[in-house]
Every structure is written in C-alpha cells, then in structure tokens.
Amino acid sequence: MFSRLITVSQPRPSLQPSTRRRSQLVHVLSGLMTFIRHCGYHARTAMLFTASDLKTILLPISAFACATAPLCSFDRLLRALIWTWIHQFMCNVSNQARTRLEDAVNKPWRPLPAGRITERQAFVLRWVTVAAAFGCSALHGGDLMLTTLGLLLTTFAYDELGLAGHLIGKSICNIGGYTTLEIGATKLMGATRDLDNVSATAVCISGALICTTIQAQDFADVEGDAILGRKTFPIYAPEFSRIATVTAISVWSLFLASFWGIGSVCGAIFVVFGSFVGSRFYSLRGPDDDELSYVLYNVSKICTIMLVARSTLRALPQVWLTMVHIMPNHARTGLFTF
C-alpha cells in the first residue's frame, strides 16, 4: 500500500505597508530619473541642431528686433526669443537632414554625424518643427503665421528644391530667410505690430546687405560644400569672392554710417572695424580663420541695427553684421551721435 505525501504551500508573508510604499516610491523615482535623462538627451540634441547658428541667426535677429522695433518689455523680448529660436530650429533641422556627409567633414558634432538621431528621424522631426513653428505663430496672430509660411516656403526651396546648391538661388533664399525672421521678431518686440518707415527701411537694407555679403558664411565650408557638389561663390570664384567680400563689407560700412547719420567717432570705429573684418576674409584663408572671420562678421552686424533709433521712440541700446543690425536704433534715439 502506497501513501501519498501531500504538501500544502504556505502563504507568502505580505510586505509591510511601509515597505510597499518605499518600493513604489523607488519605482516612481527611477522612472522619473529615466524621463529626465531622456528629456536632457533630446534637449541637447535640439541645441546641437541650432548651436552653430545661435551667433549667426538668433543673436543678430534678436538684436535687430530689439533696436528696430524697439523693445518695449521683457515679456515681449522673451516671446520673440522663443519664436525666433523655434523658427531657426525648423530651418536647421530641414537643412541638416540632408547634409550629413558635409557635416561629417565640417561639423561632426552635429546630431546626424554624431549618431544622436537617424536620417529617418530627422525627416520626421523636420515636419514636427514646422507644426511647432505654425503653432507658436498662431498664438500671436495671423500676421505671424504668414511670416512662418514665408520662411517655410523659403526653406522648402532651399532644401527640397535644391537652391542651396545654386549660386544665385542660395542668395535669394538667404534674403528671404533673414528678412522673414527679422519681420517676425520685430513685430513681437515692439509696442505695435505694424512696421513703421524706420523698421521697413531697416529690413530692406538688411536684405540687400545679406545679398551682397552672405558668401561670408561659405568660406569655412568649402570642403564640405564641394563634397555635396554645391556651387557656392567661394567655390565658383575663389579669389574674386574674397575681393568682393572685403569690398562689399567696406562699402556697406561707409554707406551705413552715412545713411543712419551716426557721429564721427562712432562712424570711424564702425568703418575701421568693418574694414578689419573684410580684410580678414582676404588675407587669412584657413578654415579656422574663415570661421572666426564669419563670427566677427555677425558680431559686427549688431551695430548696424542700433543705428536706426533716432527719429521716434526711445529704444534700449543693445560687436559688422550684428553691429549693422543695431544701427537702425540710432534713427530713434540718436544713440551714436558722438
């Protein structure tokens, strides 16, 4: 006769309430830390998309709007900065989604060559940023949405239609990109959304200046542009493009100092600095030298903005491209009368 041994499982002791709460808290904190790490990673990726153009787009555009509008409150400054950065982000993602090979040579730290994002993800993000830009503009009115549309069409022509590789087409797109950003930021910074004669004149001058000097951004990228088969001015005419740049910057410096009626001391400083920046493009031709020259070109654009401030409202005074953008401020405040 066989006997069967039957074992009865004993119930497992339940966790104490305090232990269970501690376990849940650890789980929540772990998930929160993971979420924060992911957010930090994606925020850094977004900043890497825009990093190289903060000094060439965000800074001069913001300085232009501050001086030309002129700036009337900190709240409007913050709104304009956010609006400008989101639209710059849209342009940067659209451009960099197609320039991985070029960036691997010129800027390997950018998100695509650094492996932080795939090309497929970048193309999806490109249209997500379009929606974000329109959403941001919609919060401020229909006129800003028209500005976003203008920038989108310019970006589409530059990247999707291939005008980035066309000598004249690239200049036209650069004019459209800069002026639409300037119009939008100026509308947000000022007490009124209408552009007066000073603001409209400053935007037109900025467009003409960009048309004749924008090749300054291409000297440092000749190697990468050649890999992509682009026909930029420095590639098409290596020597003449440098002569044209130093000439244009010097002539613009003289013209703007006279046009905005700044004082003799400020005018002399601006003209000398403009001539110095232009001469760097001609005499110093290494990639690092060209990169520094382009930074100086953009820093100096701020001063051109400030010269607009003399004729109407008082503006808050905000080193060739950024100096240029500050000059309109002189038309309102007489900031540079000495």
UniProtKB/TrEMBL annotation:
<dbReference type="GO" id="GO:0016765">
    <property type="term" value="F:transferase activity, transferring alkyl or aryl (other than methyl) groups"/>
</dbReference>
<dbReference type="GO" id="GO:0016020">
    <property type="term" value="C:membrane"/>
</dbReference>
<keyword id="KW-1133">Transmembrane helix</keyword>
<dbReference type="InterPro" id="IPR044878">
    <property type="entry name" value="UbiA_sf"/>
</dbReference>
<keyword id="KW-0812">Transmembrane</keyword>
<dbReference type="Pfam" id="PF01040">
    <property type="entry name" value="UbiA"/>
</dbReference>
<keyword id="KW-0472">Membrane</keyword>
<protein>
    <recommendedName>
        <fullName>UbiA prenyltransferase family-domain-containing protein</fullName>
    </recommendedName>
</protein>
<feature type="transmembrane region" description="Helical">
    <location>
        <begin position="251"/>
        <end position="274"/>
    </location>
</feature>
<dbReference type="InterPro" id="IPR050475">
    <property type="entry name" value="Prenyltransferase_related"/>
</dbReference>
<dbReference type="InterPro" id="IPR000537">
    <property type="entry name" value="UbiA_prenyltransferase"/>
</dbReference>
